[in-house]
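Structural prep section.
Before we set up the soaks we want a predicted structure of the protein with NDP in place, mainly to decide which crystallisation condition to try first. Input record follows.
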Amino acid sequence: MSRSVLVTGGNRGIGQAIAAAFVANGDQVAITYRSGEPPEGVLAVRCDVTDAASVEAAFTEIEAAHGPVEVLVANAGITADTLVLRMSEDDWSRVIDTNLTGSFRVAKRATKGMLRMRRGRLIFISSVVGLLGSAGQVNYAASKAGLVGMARSLARELGSRSITANVVAPGFVETEMTAVLPEETQARYKEQIPLGRYASTEEVAAVVQWLASDGAAYVTGAVIPVDGGLGMGH
Ligand code: NDP
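Run finished without errors. Recording the tokens verbatim:
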């Protein structure tokens, strides 16, 4: 059955691969983007997750075209890395507002329709550093750890209506961000990863697909690592 799926930040990187996998599955897929040319084959809706009115307008447009969102992937995220003493209030707030509060805004809005349908899948894209910590990423790691508490609370609040809430925690993924790292740095990172390589965006998308599938109907409040073994133990 074709579902109404929304992937925030689905115009590039991991989000684009997640959206493409849902399209390949035959779902009706909407993505959000802020600027530039969105990919084809999806309903592309302009939305800034830091702006509640923009989120509301995006959902109204998506619901008119595809019906209520049944699968939400909260993927939009940013970094503003620097060591703690140099981290400004603005570096902190921007990252929390986008990664954590932005995910809250879209999850809250999606829940409205899911409660009426008595089904739904909330999937939050966190990171291995949410639980592992990362020097220079105090803001980012806090935002990604926050998603775990939020998802688990949603799992408890919404479970009786057959709505699941889960977290996917990727490690290093082959994206524009990691491609620009010097080879020496990449080699050092890879030494820490049992599988000895980065993930492809498709490998993250495959786990998201599974969480949205019938096979994962009894999985909620879980944190699923897609990190090649980097974070083992949490
Ligand atoms: P990119 O930087 O390639 O893409 C980020 C996406 O988020 C873009 O689509 C961007 O939209 C969107 N976005 C950022 N801010 C906002 C906002 N305020 N409102 C709406 N959309 C916004 O990131 P990746 O694909 O690398 O990462 C995707 C997710 O995966 C993020 O949450 C990231 O933290 C997480 N992650 C990434 C890892 C990696 O190795 N790359 C590892 C672990 C987790 P726009 O194009 O308009 O800027």
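Observations: The chain has eight helices and seven strands.
Flagged for discussion at group meeting.
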